[in-house]
Specification:
Number of strands: 10
Strand order of the largest sheet: 6-7-8-3-9-10
Shape: globular
Oligomer: single chain
Order of helices and strands: EEEHEEHEHHHEHEHEE
Number of helices: 7
CATH class: Alpha Beta
CATH superfamily: P-loop containing nucleotide triphosphate hydrolases
Largest sheet: 6 strands, mixed
Radius of gyration: 17 Å
Distance between the termini: 15 Å
Strand content: 25-35%
Length: 219
């Protein structure tokens, strides 16, 4: 099976030393990192936003080294990231944050964007206001909006960065069920969880685990 993400002897700063691992296409996998900063660096490397000092990173079958910005943008459009606090822009309202990628890429007409946006929020159980600023929301609500925005993009790969951190047991269970359902909706979709919390990784519905030992990842 083709690997959605592949790191081959990647060295990046002092945080990652000769890291090698692969994430099978269509799988639900989790990587246990030493600290949250490592998770952030992994995301940047996977998106081609940071370059390794040595080694290679392959995303969706395409080597990132030497890829043009046009090629990188085409790959990034097939990837969604849900960041630890939702990844919302602080001075944009919930609705503006939610539909920003759809409007930016002009994927659908306005009426369809509205319908899809409302359906996505309903799907994640979001109950707060659409015109709220992110700073007025709970962490759980911000994660819900970030998750709904990721779902709207219909990505081939979803990266969940510390998705369960800071949530109650009931909230974690709800998020996991939403992710599990979304993963199954599209054959071949890959879900990758990143966390530095060993307890959290035990709750994740994963088929493959990538353990980070010191500064190395072993797949």
């Amino acid at each position: 099976m083709e690997q959605t993400v592949k790191f081959d002897k990647v060295v990046a700063d002092e945080q990652l030393q000769e890291v090698s691992f692969g994430v099978p296409g269509g799988s639900m996998a989790a990587a246990l990192t030493e600290r949250q900063e490592e998770s952030y660096l992994l995301v940047r490397l996977m998106l081609g936003l940071a370059q390794p000092l040595s080694g290679s990173v392959t995303l969706l079958g395409e080597p990132l080294g030497g890829a043009s910005e046009k090629a990188l943008n085409a790959l990034r459009r097939q990837v969604a990231v849900v960041y630890p606090a939702g990844g919302l822009i602080s001075n944009l309202k919930v609705w503006e944050n939610l539909v920003l990628p759809l409007e930016y890429f002009s994927l659908y007409p306005p009426k369809e964007i509205e319908e899809r946006g409302m359906a996505a929020l309903e799907g994640v159980g979001y109950a707060a206001g659409l015109m709220e600023l992110p700073g007025h929301l709970s962490l759980y609500s911000r994660k819900q909006v970030g998750l709904a925005r990721a779902m709207l993009l219909n990505p081939r790969l979803v990266i969940y960065d510390e998705i369960l951190t800071g949530l109650s047991g009931d909230q974690r269970g709800s998020i996991i069920e939403i992710i599990r359902k979304f993963h199954r909706e599209t054959p071949g979709r890959t879900s990758l969880f990143l966390t530095s919390n060993e307890d959290a990784i035990r709750e994740m519905p994963v088929e493959a685990r990538i353990a980070m030992k010191g500064s190395s990842v072993h797949g």
